[in-house]
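Problem 12. The chain below contains 219 residues. Write out its predicted structure in token notation.
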Amino acid sequence: MLFSRHKNHLPTPEEALKGRPEPGFPVPDRHTVLGNPLTGPYPEGLVVADFGLGCFWGAERKFWQAPGVWTTLVGYQGGHTENPTYEEVCSGLTAHTEAVRVVFDPSVTSYSALLKLFWESHDPTQGFRQGNDVGTQYRSAIYTHSPEQQSAAETSRAAYQSVLTGSGYGQITTEILPAGPFYPAEAYHQQYLDKNPAGYCGIGGTGVSCPVGVAPAEG
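Solution.
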């Protein structure tokens, strides 16, 4: 992954790169593992959830393997630059984090189950990094699509903080905010570890289990 001198500073809207009004590259039509469309509109009844937990290559695989997940795609979220490129995000001058969009069937799984997978799949106490990956684009984040998701995410954060503290970890640095624009990443990033099974994966959890049932919201 790329590094930059801006890796520990989130730029303001005035400092951020301006971006472009339209995407600079095409996005594949379908998921290489699940076979479903990557981008919406999605079938009625499915629910969208967005997570940032470090390098999105390994993060996406965690979610596409989960029961009830209809499709996943990776992209850039939480920043200021319109339609950024990977190189721009890695420069530290867009304020985006690497994110995974998860579209799931609430009759099969739940937002609570996805939150549990999110917390247990990375170390949310590291600030602008995940392990050896250093930079603002690797920060932990949950971007919510309803007041119910926001409440569930905040409740789960408090519950997980309690068990992390008991295991000797510091404060959770995960940002939980209403979802803004999600910009899909370049084609080669989508389902990267399906296309490159031996590829880089920097995702690793704390080994501390998140309490089950801490997030009752389904959508």
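Discussion. Confidence is low (pLDDT under 50) at residues 215-219. Students who got a different answer should revisit the alignment rule from Section 12.3.
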